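Input chain follows. Return structure tokens only.
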Amino acid sequence: MSVVTSTTDFTQDQLVLLKKGDPEAVAWFVDTYSPFVYRLALRIVRDPIDAEDILQETFLKVLQNIHSFEGRSKLSSWLYRIVVNEALLTLRKRKPYLELDTPASESEENDEPMEIIDWCCLPEEVLLSVESKKALEEVVQKLPDIYRLVFILRDIEQLSIKETADALGISEANVKIRLMRARMYLRQELSKFYGEKMIEAGLK
């Protein structure tokens, strides 16, 4: 779940102080949002050094452009777009031909049959274990970028479909299609992990 919620958004008075460059307001903003910015950047670019660079660039751009923020949306929503833009710039340095706005097509789908295992009968401590969370994180990192980014923003950071589309610069239809395919891939891959757990528990 995202750490950026309505409870951590600036009040109008705080926003005024931030625009004026008030040291306490700036310090609160940086301290409050730094963990979120770094975590999101790391999930996208998968490199701690690059994530640190994105963290610095994000706050630099926010503080340089805060005067232009009119408050029509949450400050956190504006921050999301800046973080994602910086992260995408980093990804495109590695992959110059990365195209996120290409319309999703049926040809992207995998026609191979999917082996899906129902693991709902596993004990809750298995489903919520550190090992399970690690397995999910590893599978997410294996997703192609066009699916991984949508999944991170929509299902992990819990942005709305519209917010995810705006952050990535793609259509809402593309978000929905790619999210569905990301979830299907994850379920298929996690079926392998949980299938082994079911065997260990004598449930299969």
